[in-house]
Amino acid sequence: xxxxxxxxxxxxxxxxxxxxxxxxxxxxxxxxxxxxxxxxxxxxxxxxxxxxxxxxxxxxxxxxxxxxxxxxxxxxxxxxxxxxxxxxxxxxxxxxxxxxxxxxxxxxxxxxxxxxxxxxxxxxxxxxxxxxxxxxxxxxxxxxxxxxxxxxxxxxxx
Length: 158
Hints:
Elements: H1 2-7, H2 10-14, H3 23-30, H4 32-65, H5 84-111, H6 117-157
């Protein structure tokens, strides 16, 4: 639609047809079902991604509370805190929590969007992309955290 508008003279953009509609109004009237389908798809997609982001945040929170190796009974400091692998665990777990929270906010903003025609042209695709990237980073850092925790646990046994 924007490509066609760029090619047409400005005066013709505001001209009305025999039905009293501008080209923009006619375009959106003819594509109402497409807008409805897109709105449903965006809501379903953001709902699904919010569930995944919530699960990642829950796992990251639980992992930080129950650190691998346990805590020192006297000081409360994690027993394996001086190992470099524990630093990797802690940082990746924190990133997982942060990026899952960011993706939750992105998908929540999609849920509360007005879903107008203009939103689908600019705002919603950008928010969806940012949310998916944040969710991808959250899952990747969660996997790094998980791998670090497994390695720390195996080092103590072996």
